[in-house]
Amino acid sequence: MTAPGGDGAAVVGPLHTLSVGTSGPRIAFLHGLFGQGRNWSTIAKALAGPDGTGARCTLVDLPDHGRSPWSEEFSYAGYAASVAATLRAVDEGPWIVVGHSLGGKVAMVLALTDPALVSRLVVVDIAPKDYGDLDRFAGYIREMQSLPLGELRDRADAEARFEESDLGVKAFLLQNLRREGTSWRWQANVQLFADDAAQGEDSLIADWPLPPGSVAPFEGGVLWVAGSESRYIKEADADVMRALFPHVRLLKVKGATHWVHSDAPAVVVEALRRVVQAASR
């Protein structure tokens, strides 16, 4: 099976998912680089509500992340097709799809190449553009690769040896460390990301795979969420975003960084509730 978008990338799957909620609109959540579906748990539980009837949320581990299979090469088309196959196995949809950072690009590719599956789109702090390279992640990748997995005694030992001063970033990256018996491994496909980062400006992850005119615009409603303290979305990005998503609305969250849903969960939950209400009309 090959992915939509023309690059022939193989679909991996089924992807690992977590379900939150028992009834209501279908919402899929896609995480960022080195994340996992469960990073969206707080938001999903709030949307589902105490009785689980507010929404049916599916939290997806993207390929090369969490408990999902690894791919041989990175491809946004392959990632999007893997997500599409996984969601259709749950429900033919259409789905509200929410994606942050890397997951935001995957969500945009999914909406543009498989619009029948997506009713509404929420893109969190990323734009459909080439970001140049993965230099901002290169240090994290080196830290992960330098951790001596064969010497670790326990998770406390891993935390002590992991050279990252930002405790939040450390916890985020170390969620990828998994113990199996007496040995340890990274759940994330660190070598794949290291190889991509080594490509510099030819990084596929930093790039945007759909050049202007290659696909028809997505005609569904789109909420574009940006952190006011983040550098990932600039004013100049609005034109290309509108060209691909003509019904886009920008929400800038005051005081939030790139991790908007972690910095301002109440704001994100309220915004998503409005998206759900609009989709239900």
CATH superfamily of the largest domain: Alpha/Beta hydrolase fold, catalytic domain
Low-confidence stretches: 1-8
**Terminus-to-terminus distance:** 35 Å
Instruction: Using the coordinates above, name the CATH class of the largest domain.
Output: Alpha Beta
Number of helices: 10
Order of helices and strands: EEHEHEHEHHHEEHEHEHH
Q: What do we call the CATH topology of the largest domain?
A: Rossmann fold
Number of strands: 9
| Shape by Cα distribution | globular
Percent strand equals 15-25%
Query: What is the residue-averaged pLDDT?
Result: 94
Question: What's the number of structural domains?
Answer: 2
Gyration radius, rounded: 18 Å
State the main characteristics.
single chain, 281 residues, alpha/beta, Rossmann fold, 2 domains, 7-stranded mixed sheet, two-stranded antiparallel ribbon, 10 helices, 17% strand, globular, Pimeloyl-ACP methyl ester carboxylesterase, hydrolase activity, AB_hydrolase_1
Structure commentary:
The chain has helices at 41-48, 76-90, 102-113, 135-146, 155-161, 167-174, 190-197, 237-244, 260-263, 265-280; strands spanning 17-20, 26-30, 56-60, 95-100, 118-124, 177-180, 183-186, 221-227, 248-253. The protein contains ten helices and nine strands. By secondary structure, it is α/β, with parallel strands linked by helices. The strands form two sheets. Strands 1-3-2-4-5-8-9 form a seven-stranded mixed beta sheet, with helices on both faces. A two-stranded antiparallel sheet has the order 6-7.
